[in-house]
Amino acid sequence: MQPGERFNIALSSDQKVTTPGNFGTFDDINNVSYVRNELAVKEGWKKDVSKVTTYEVTKPINVFEGPVGPQIDGGKYLSGGGSQIQLLLKREDNKMLYLNPVNTKEIK
């Protein structure tokens, strides 16, 4: 991704906007149901989802990009199908060297 491009990341209630994970989407996220179903985020991966932050890329980042695949979460089928990007950074990397949070909204 190049500087100026934007994408969204769903965050848990205790997750700081300065410590996002490595997966995001170009999709508009308006509710938790979208995160669970179209983005196929298992509860084991993110126990609660309460907000979405839009990030702007400030320094080039290599990413994988494609559709979200389906998942099974405790016997429940999560269809996937949304857009997905995976930042090719290490989990411990300071992502704020590459990203600027520009907006955060709460979702239910």
Summarize the structure.
Helix content is 6%, strand content 36%.
Give an account of the 3D structure.
By secondary structure, the chain is mainly beta. It has one domain. Helices cover 6% and strands 36% of the residues. The chain is built from one helix and eight strands, in the order E-E-H-E-E-E-E-E-E. The chain has one helix at residues 32-37; strands spanning 6-11, 23-24, 51-57, 63-67, 71-73, 76-78, 83-87, 99-106. Strands 1-3-8 form a three-stranded antiparallel β-sheet, with no helix packed on it. A three-stranded antiparallel β-sheet has the order 2-7-4, with no helix packed on it. It has a two-stranded antiparallel sheet with strand order 5-6. Strand 5 and strand 6 (76-78) form a beta hairpin. The radius of gyration is 13 Å and the shape is globular. The protein starts with 5 loop residues before the first strand and ends with a strand. The model has no long low-confidence stretch (mean pLDDT 97).
SSE order and pairing:
Elements: E1 6-11, E2 23-24, H1 32-37, E3 51-57, E4 63-67, E5 71-73, E6 76-78, E7 83-87, E8 99-106
